[in-house]
Amino acid sequence: MDNLNLTTLQRGQTMVNDVAIDAFAAGFRGSLLTSKDMDYNEARAIWNAMIDRRPGLIARCAGAADVVRAVRFARDNNLLVSVRGGGHGIAGNAVCEGGIVIDLSAMKSVRVDPQTKRARIEPGATLADVDKETLAFGLVLPTGINSTTGIAGLTLGGGFGWLTRKFGLTLDNLLSVDVVTADGELVKASETERPDLFWALRGGGGNFGVVTSFEFKLNPLNPEVLAGLVVHPFADAEKVLREYRQALEAAPDELTCWVVMRQAPPLPFLPAEWHGKEILVLAMCYCGDIAAGEKAAARLRAIGNPIADVVGPVPFTGWQQAFDPLLTPGARNYWKSQDFASLSDAAIDVLLNAVRKLPGPECEIFIGHVGGAAGRVPTEATAFPQRSSHFVMNVHARWRETGMDGSCIDWARELFEATKPHSVGTAYINFMPEDETDRVESAYGANYSRLAEIKRRYDPNNLFRMNQNVKPTAAVRAA
C-alpha cells in the first residue's frame, strides 16, 4: 500500500491509490463517499456554517468493526482524521480538509435497561434520541439544552444543562466506554479496566480514540418538570442580575436558572412591540415535585417587573427542545467562553455594556448556572477541570451574511478579553472555537500534564488531533 504524505493531499481528494481504497471498501459495512458522490456535500456539512471543508473520504460507519477498519486505514496511510458524531461542535472538528471523516452519525442505537437503570448509547445519537428512550421509563441522563446535539462530543467534553446541579455532568454518569484507540484496537475503559484512559475520556474530548458505545447510569425523573421563561426589559438588567445572583445563593440542586441577553425573537407570548428589542431572559427548570418547584422558583419569579412569565409544568422532553428553533443549522457561529466563580458587579457591568453593542439580531450572551452536584466532584476525579465555577458564560455570535463576519467575531473577542479579569481561567472545551488551540493547556489547568502523559501512551503520534488537542508528553517537552 502506498504511504500517503499529508503534504500531497489535494482539496476534496485523497491520494491513496485505488487498490488500497478498494481493499478498505471491500470489508466496510457502511458507505464510503468521495467528492464524486451525490451525497458528499450533504455529508460534509455540519451545524456551524462557517466551516466549509472538503474531506477526501467520508467513511459512514455502520458499527464498531467499521470504526476499527477506518482507524487502521487512516493510520496505515498517514491520513488526517476527523471524527463526526452529531456534527454540532462549534470548532468544526467533525470534518477535516483532504483527509478522512470517520462518520458515526448512523450509529444511533439507544438501549435502556429499566431494571439496572442503565443505558447503552451509540455515538451518533442526539440528545433527542436519548431523551425519547430514557424518559419512556421515567429515567433520564443529564445532558445539554439543545436536542440536536450529539451525545458523543457532549459527553467527552463534559455535558451540562438543566439537570446538572441535581445529577452532575453527563460524564459524571458515564460507567464505561468501548473505544477504538490509535493502534486500531477496540478496548473497554471503565473505573476498573484501563482506568487511566477512562479518566482521560471524561473531559479530554476526542484526543484518545473513537468511542463506539457509551454505558451510562440513569436517574429517576418525573416526565413533567416546572420550567419556562421570565422575560425582562433590558433597561432593568442590572437590577435583575444582582437579585438573580442573590436568589441563587439558597437554590436547591433541583433548581437551575440561566440568563440569556439578546434582541427579542418574535415569540408568541411577547407583545409585538418588544420584538427586536434587547431583553434579559431568566430560563429556569425545577426537576422535582411541582409544588416544591413553585416555592423554590418564587424568589426568581418575583424579581422586577417582567414583560412575560411563562413558567409552568411542562414535559421535560418539550423543554429540552425549547431552544432548538434558535439554534438551527445553517447559520455562521463563533463562540467565546469564560468560567466564573461568581457574578461580580464588575463582571455584570462588562456584560451589560456588551449587550448594548450587539452586532446582530441572533447574537446573544448566556450565563449557565452550574455547581450543585457537578461542583462537589473533586477536580482530579476526571479530566474535566472546572468544578469550582458556578457560572459559565457563552458569548454566542450568530449571523447569516459573510459580510458580518468581522463585526460579530470582533464583538465576541472583545467581550472575552474584557471578562478575563473576572474569570477563574479554565474553559469548557465544547464552547471553544477552532482558533483557541493556544488555550487548551490553561483550559485543563492542573489536569493537563496527566492528560498529556495518557495521550503519549495511547496516541503517541497524535493521530487524533482534530480536536481541542492535547499533545503527547514528548511533543510538549520538545516544544
From TrEMBL:
<comment type="similarity">
    <text>Belongs to the oxygen-dependent FAD-linked oxidoreductase family.</text>
</comment>
<dbReference type="Pfam" id="PF08031">
    <property type="entry name" value="BBE"/>
</dbReference>
<dbReference type="InterPro" id="IPR036318">
    <property type="entry name" value="FAD-bd_PCMH-like_sf"/>
</dbReference>
<feature type="domain" description="FAD-binding PCMH-type">
    <location>
        <begin position="50"/>
        <end position="221"/>
    </location>
</feature>
<dbReference type="GO" id="GO:0071949">
    <property type="term" value="F:FAD binding"/>
</dbReference>
<keyword id="KW-0285">Flavoprotein</keyword>
<keyword id="KW-0560">Oxidoreductase</keyword>
<dbReference type="InterPro" id="IPR016169">
    <property type="entry name" value="FAD-bd_PCMH_sub2"/>
</dbReference>
<keyword id="KW-0274">FAD</keyword>
<dbReference type="Pfam" id="PF01565">
    <property type="entry name" value="FAD_binding_4"/>
</dbReference>
<dbReference type="InterPro" id="IPR050416">
    <property type="entry name" value="FAD-linked_Oxidoreductase"/>
</dbReference>
<dbReference type="InterPro" id="IPR006094">
    <property type="entry name" value="Oxid_FAD_bind_N"/>
</dbReference>
<dbReference type="InterPro" id="IPR016166">
    <property type="entry name" value="FAD-bd_PCMH"/>
</dbReference>
<dbReference type="InterPro" id="IPR012951">
    <property type="entry name" value="BBE"/>
</dbReference>
<protein>
    <submittedName>
        <fullName>FAD/FMN-containing dehydrogenase</fullName>
    </submittedName>
</protein>
<dbReference type="InterPro" id="IPR016167">
    <property type="entry name" value="FAD-bd_PCMH_sub1"/>
</dbReference>
<dbReference type="GO" id="GO:0016491">
    <property type="term" value="F:oxidoreductase activity"/>
</dbReference>
<dbReference type="InterPro" id="IPR006093">
    <property type="entry name" value="Oxy_OxRdtase_FAD_BS"/>
</dbReference>
